[in-house]
């Protein structure tokens, strides 16, 4: 399993909207057959920052299958225009 960590920073005055959009988008991500788990957390010190954590069966499941499929556009439609630049995204694997 590979864990995707994505950090989103809300645009000013869009903090609550971004949080709501991420929550709605989780249901879209969870529809992908290679999604193992998906949840989001909000930063305590910086309430405009959110961390999305998604477990995928493999790196390819996220990078190739999900990002190139119809669910990606549907997921992003919930948060477009609510966050600064591109999110910071990295993938982790237990060792």
Automatic annotation (TrEMBL):
UniProt keyword list: Monooxygenase, Oxidoreductase
Matching entries from InterPro entries are given as:
ABM_dom, Dimeric_a/b-barrel
Q: Which SUPFAM superfamilies match?
A: Dimeric alpha+beta barrel
Cite the GO molecular-function annotations of the record: monooxygenase activity
Give the matching Pfam families.
Answer: ABM
Q: Which residues form the ABM domain?
A: 1-76
User: From what superkingdom does this record's organism come?
Assistant: Bacteria
Protein name, UniProt field: Antibiotic biosynthesis monooxygenase
Q: Which organism is it from?
A: Tengunoibacter tsumagoiensis
